[in-house]
Structure formats: structure tokens, C-alpha cells
Amino acid sequence: MDEKQRKLAEELLFSEKKEPSFGKRLFFGKFDSHNIFPFPEVDPADKYITDKFLVQVQQLCDSQIDADAIDREANIPQSVIDSLGALGVLGMTIPKEYGGLGMTQYAYCKAVEILSRKCGSTALFVNAHQSVGLKAVLLFGTEEQKKRWLPPLARGELLAAFSLTEPNAGSDAAGIETRAVFDASKNVWRINGTKQWTTNGAIAGMLTVMAKCSVETPQGVQDKITAFLVTPDMPGFKILNPALEKVGMRGSKTANLAFENMEVPAANVLGPLGGGLKVCLTVLDYGRTTFGATCTGSAKYLVNRAIKHASSRYQFNRPLGSFALVKKKIAFMSAYLYAMESSTLLTASFVDRNVEDFMLESAMLKVFCSDSLWNIIYDTMQIFGGRSFFTDEPFERMMRDARLNMIGEGSNEVMRAFIGAVGMRDVGMALKDTLEGIQSPIRKFSSLISSIREAFGHFTIPLVPIRSAALKLEAVGLGQRVRSFGIAVPKLLIKYRESIIENQLQLDRIATAAMGLYTATAVLSRIDSELQRFGPAAETSLSSAISNDLAWAKLYCQIAFENIDNALIGLKDNFDADIESLSDKITGIV
Length: 590
Fold this sequence. Notes:
Layout: H1 3-14, H2 22-26, H3 44-64, H4 67-73, H5 78-87, H6 105-118, H7 120-133, H8 135-140, H9 143-155, E1 160-163, E2 179-183, E3 188-199, E4 206-217, E5 220-230, E6 237-241, E7 254-265, E8 269-270, H10 276-312, E9 314-315, E10 318-319, H11 324-352, H12 359-384, H13 395-402, H14 412-439, H15 445-455, H16 472-496, H17 504-534, H18 547-572, H19 576-587
Parallel strand pairs: 1-4
Antiparallel strand pairs: 2-3, 3-7, 4-5, 5-8, 6-7, 9-10
């Protein structure tokens, strides 16, 4: 990362003063439980409305969506899109005053979970429209823009898309080359450039398009990215390919677009001039939250099928589920599924409770759930053996669909480096303040004391406020690992200083540990609240309604703790230099 990229990252990610999130506090060795414990509950009135709506979503899926046909024909029928619009699915999170249902993020996540369980392409179509396509208008639009665009988008009369990626700009969003030039005589922006892989791009009636333009700043005129609301009827809007052939998610329409002197009215600028990357990053936080829900939906279907097959399929005169290697798969996929759902519900609750910053948590959720789903698909196919290899079962389609999850909205490798770097940034700043205070102890005494408390608040094991005695061991184990993590992070920063940004193998370990802490926290909070709801007998009764939930939670904590421990050990004991040296030798890159 060069100096220009570093300054841009600082401006985008850290320019606003926000209350540090739960995830960011973990990097200081702190366990801030106030948004976590007890596990957030949905308002009973909202839940009643949501549950009734979800029944209708399930009925729509059962009666109208043929996932195999959608995949085979690479097309979601217009009748399905119309039904989704008529039911209100396409405007679930749009407020009622703009024609939507005004439902919660919790409700939306549960709806796309149902859709994903049935058809990955349909779930992706809905997410591209609602989670990112129209979300920018909802979050950054003027009142006039909201009144103009949101009602038809809520009804499905217009579909939305989010157009960012270009041939030379993928995960590096700042590298886009599409350019907008203002024509004062016409009061329009003239846009030229190309976009690729825009989901819904050829069927959308409104697209949020990112383009660079010259913007006046305190440092003079600079190139900044701005968001524009574009419609396909604008002269110069061209569809190069309306539906690219893809490995998976084949029913969704993924388009390549071109803009040739396309004139966009000044009134269609979305958000502030030069604020496009902020729009982009904020919208993607919401999109990554629903990644958790779609992955969880697919995983629920797979785990259910794997358990039934392991119980009913006999080989060597015994059920598959009686073999230890199959037992491990069943136990692990069940535990991971519980963690996926717990983490998704917790992250969605941050949106519903207007928590100011959940950027790190949504990134961790996206990586964790997409990786977990991939492993669950693998294990399900292994349990089904040869049967999984044929198209009369949905597993090969689900495998192809799931591959996108680890690439879209930031590849998991980029996101792991992002999690590590963003999480450690505030710790690094606190260490810097501490060092400056030590060098000038009298002049900066008060800031020195504050910085020491902030940077080294991890000397004690934090309390994880569980209420159930059955979880005492896990709560202590989590607290111990939060402390260990809080000690490891500043040590790593002291060793590498700013060069830690380029040490991606260490950032990967930090991300693995952080995800383990966050997901284990979600699991413990959820199961603790469930145990309280069912009463003391639920903790000891093997026949209680949540005995499986408790077992899944305990096993997941063991898995997460092992992953955390291995990641922290690897910070000191590794052969990273040999790995990188060999790769450079093979590729010839110096």
C-alpha cells in the first residue's frame, strides 16, 4: 500500500468519530458486552408480523420457484419477479412512507434465508436489488430522490443494480477508470467508461454507478469517486452483454455495460460530490450482512439432507452415521450452522438497533459464513458420495452457486487482510500516542495516562456476562482468549509497525482469531439467552427442547478456541518467509 492509498483509507474508514464497535474493542483485549448480552430479541409485535410474512415467502418459493429450471435456463421467470414485487419482498426494508413494508433487517435476513434455501440465484437477485442496488438511495438519497425512486423500486416496477466493478478495478474500488465531467451549460455530468459483472445490470431501471470526477478540496482539485443514479434510457447507456455465462448463480443476470458520453442530470448525483467510495463502503456493509443470511439458508438445507442420509443410508450393514469420520462431519456442520445463524442474527440486530459502526462485524460475518458454507457443501457431498455428483440432486448446483460467496463484495482474502488491518489501526494509534507521551511525559501526562489505559487494558481477563452455569467453562475460555488476543495485537504492531499492512499472512491469522472471538461470542450470547428462556431444567435435561442447541454451542466454542489458539501461536511460530520466498522463486516476482 503506497502513501496515496494509505491516506485514502484513513479518509474513508477513520475520518468520522464513531463509538468503537464490539469487534474493534476486541483488538484492545476488551469485551464490551452492552450490545451483545443478553442476545438481542425481536419485538414480539414485529416478530408476529414477520412470521406471518415468512409463511407467505415460503409458500411463494414452494409454488413458483423451480431452482433447477432457473439454473438450467439461466433465467428467473418474470412471473417470479412479479410475485416477489407483489408480495413486498422487493421493498421489505423500504419505509412505508416510500411504498415499502418498513420491515426490520432481521425480517429481511429471514426472508432471504428462505429464498436461498430454495434457490441461490433468486436470493442473489433480491439482494442485488435491495441490499445494495436501492440501499444507496435509502441511505444517501435526498428527499426528492427517495420520493422519485423508492416507491416503484419497492413494488418491483423498477429493479435496481449497483455498478462498481470494472476491467481494472475489482476489490481495489479506488482504481475505477469510468470518468464523469460536468457540463455547466447543460447542468449534466457526461460519463464515459465501462463496467463489468453488474448483477441485474441489463434488467435494472435504476443503477447506482460509480465514476471519478474532479472535485474541489482544501488541498486543491482532486480526482474523487462520486455516485450517480443512472437509467438505461439515457443516451449513451449501452449493454455490451446482458447475461454473461457463469459457473453458478446462473439465473441472475450479470451484465457488462458501457457509457459513451452518457448525460446524467446534476440532480442524479447521489450523496456528496467525491463521496462515492463512502457510499460504496457503507452499502457493502449491509450487503455483507445479508451474505450471512443467504449462506445460512443454504446451509440449513444441506445439513438437514446430510443428517437424514447419514441416518438412512446403510453400508457394511450399518448406517453411515455410525462411522466416526461421518460423525465428525455431522457434528461439525451442525455446530458451524448454529454459529452462522447466531452471528447473522447478532449482526442484523446492529442494523435494527442503529448501532453506529458494524463495518468490521459485517466483514467478519461475510468471510465466516461463506467459508463455512463451502465446507458444509463439501461434507454433504462426501456423505452422499457418488449420488452428489449427478444433477438429480441439487448439490452440484449449490456448490457452483456458493463459489461466488467467497469472491463477491470483496474476496475473502482481501477481506481477511481488511479485518486484520482495520481492527489493528486504532490499537496502533493508541500505541503511537503512548510513545509520544513517554517522550514528553510532563507536557502530555493526561493523554499518556489515557493512552496507557486504552492500549493496555488487557492485563485482566474480561468478564463474559453469561447467566447459565452450564456455560461457565466456555465463558472463562472466551475471556482468556480475548485477553490473549489483546496482548498479541500490540506485540505484532511493535514488531512490524506500519509494515504490518503488507504482512498479509500475519493479518490472516489476526483475522482468524478475531472471527473466532466474534462468532463464539454470538454463540454464547444466544445459547445463554435460550437457556434463560427455557428455565434452569434446560441446562441439565438431555431431553429439553434446546439440548441440541446447547451441544452445538459447546462444540462450536471448542472449535473456535482451537482456531484462535492456533492463529495466535502462528504469529510467533511460522515459516512465512519460506512460503513467500518459494512463491517468488516460482513466479519470478521480485
